[in-house]
Description:
Distance between the termini of chain B: 40 Å
CATH class of chain B: Mainly Alpha
Shape of chain A: elongated
Oligomer: heterodimer
Number of domains of chain A: 2
Structural class of chain A: alpha+beta
Strand content of chain A: 35-45%
Strand content of chain B: under 5%
Helix content of chain A: 10-25%
Number of domains of chain B: 1
Radius of gyration of chain B: 23 Å
Bound molecules: adenosine-5'-triphosphate, magnesium ion
Radius of gyration of chain A: 25 Å
Structural class of chain B: mainly alpha
CATH superfamily of the largest domain in chain A: P-loop containing nucleotide triphosphate hydrolases
Largest sheet of chain B: none
CATH topology of chain B: MetI-like fold
Number of strands of chain A: 20
Number of strands of chain B: 0
CATH architecture of chain B: Orthogonal Bundle
Order of helices and strands of chain B: HHHHHHHHHHH
CATH class of the largest domain in chain A: Alpha Beta
Largest interface: A-B, 26 and 24 residues
Amino acid sequence: MALLEIRKLTRRFGALEAVKDVSLAIEAGEFFTLLGPSGCGKTTILRMIAGFDAPDEGEILLDGVSLAGVPPERRPLHTVFQSYALFPHMSVAGNIAFPLEMAGKPKDEIRRRVKETLALVHLEEKTESFPHELSGGQKQRVALARGLVNQPRLLLLDEPLGALDAKLRVEMQSELIALQREVGITFIFVTHSQQEALALSHRIAVMRDGRVEQLDEPDTLYSAPANRFVADFIGKINLLDVEVVASSKARLGLRAAGLGEIAATDPRPITVGERGAFALRPELVRVFGRRESADLKNRFEGTVRELLYLGDVTLYKVELADGCVIEAMMPNAAPGRAKFHEVGDVVTVCWRHDAGVYLRN
Amino acid sequence: MSAPRTQPAGLTKWAVTLPPTLFLLAFFLVPALIVVVAGFRETGEFGGLAPWPQVSLDAWRFLLGDVIYLEVFARSFLVAALTTLICIVLAYPLAWLIARSPKQRRDVLVLLVILPFASNFLVRIYAWIMLLGPANLLYTPLAVIVGMVYAHLPFMVLPLYTNLEKHDPALLEAAQDLGANAWTRFWRVTFPLSLPGIFSGSALVFIPVLGMFAAPELLGGTGDILIGNLIKEQFLDNRDWPLGSALAIMLTACVLALAGLSAWAAKRGMHGTEAIT
Lengths: 361, 277
Ligand SMILES: Nc1ncnc2c1ncn2[C@@H]1O[C@H](COP(=O)(O)OP(=O)(O)OP(=O)(O)O)[C@@H](O)[C@H]1O
Ligand SMILES: [Mg+2]
């Protein structure tokens, strides 16, 4: 049985349906992420799980038991708020001790557990500090420690890294992974950063306008997006409007406007004449000079229109025969030679027949 | 380059702060000093002060020699403390309710709280005479307390409201999320964070009540006079300025000592609430 099950959850605010018919099952020990653009209903779902908001339809079950009517203070789960919501009048130790005191734990156990948890988040030397004396990253750690200390069945994290600068974010991401593995508590993590979601999660539910668009493991989500929205939202991608012109035994022939035929694969039965999109990750596209050979089926000639040197990689925007632009990303592996092609170069772009995915409309 | 730029800034600072400084010197510090000096002078033949340069401790001998003055002091502090306490208890729910009501309604509610100031204080006290008279409560200690609480309640509501309005609702949600019920949330989060509001409200109530003479005179009985009445009596009725001054000095000293003590206590007990003051 799943630890937390969400069944057909719907929440309306007036005419707005903030959450529409969402069903999820979250397993014990999982690092589960709700990913989606601003306003798609992530916080609303978390608030319903925490008990601060009640669903209009559907139910939430913990260990198979409905949480309906259970007030937040009696749900065995804690939340890490985006604003941290640390108690300003309590020291770091006081903040972390709070949930233990609420649970009525004996004094010496509280002292021991606070100490252990402070060590877990590397804040031993800040025990007696007050929140206003801490940096953003340290506050974040205190908030995490406070959420974890009483070992809840489930920890809800609402964009906990949102307020940190880029470098600290990445640092905290690694710490979060290590922490979750160490304590073994189930995390439900909310973010609108696809990079963060991919880096941290066991599974990701991609949301749009209150609905779950796709629920998969990060690599599946990245390599086999279910639709245009997911493909576009996660990572960089080339999206071409195509028509299916050939389909046999998992092999597809797709015609993109003006480009000619693209060879692709798809295990689903697909009928000729169908319209859809072809999605191709830039890092799977190779760019060759005219004299270099490439024995791949999908090869098209074009001109480099723009390039973005990003240090580790270079992003080329190649304009093909009739205005269609393909982005390709190539690693800058060779030292002393940052770019392989210049703007204006005539090049060949090519990709393996199984590099891209066909998305039905 | 930088010198000419900082000079006018310094001048501006002086120009801005000088008038209020002069005002305070002329109308606060000088009168206060006059009172202090008057406390160590002798009464004149026809009241007021005897001609310079007599100096005497008569007023102090008289003041400390008669237990009645100590009694009035004690009663005044008791009334002030009681008034403050009742004001806290009454103002807290009111301030909380205003702070929790929708934004557009808050200003109206605050206006209602200060609306009584629009009419004259004595008129309002006379209104209480009308109300308390038929109830047979007039000229009792209770009437004094009622009048005091009535007159000073807004001074407690406003700082409390200002404080409570700034509380981050996320803190209460966090407390609830971590297992605190409504009662615990209030005592562990809302109340400690509102201490600065309670302190400033208390100062605004306690100190004026100590010096108030109109309410006890109009609402209280003969046994209900407070220091304020005594001081007023010395200056206006008995024309014993040295005694009046000595009483005033003693009152001021007590208040200052109390203020210092509570500031010290607040500093130790309210860590982390600075952000909300
Ligand atoms: N209490 C409320 N009353 C009315 N509308 C609300 C309320 N709470 C949320 N909404 C609306 O519901 C939608 C979803 O909001 P929600 O806060 O869940 O988004 P989110 O995915 O968490 O976005 P973000 O990434 O910006 O935090 C939004 O359109 C929001 O305006
Ligand atoms: Mg949100």
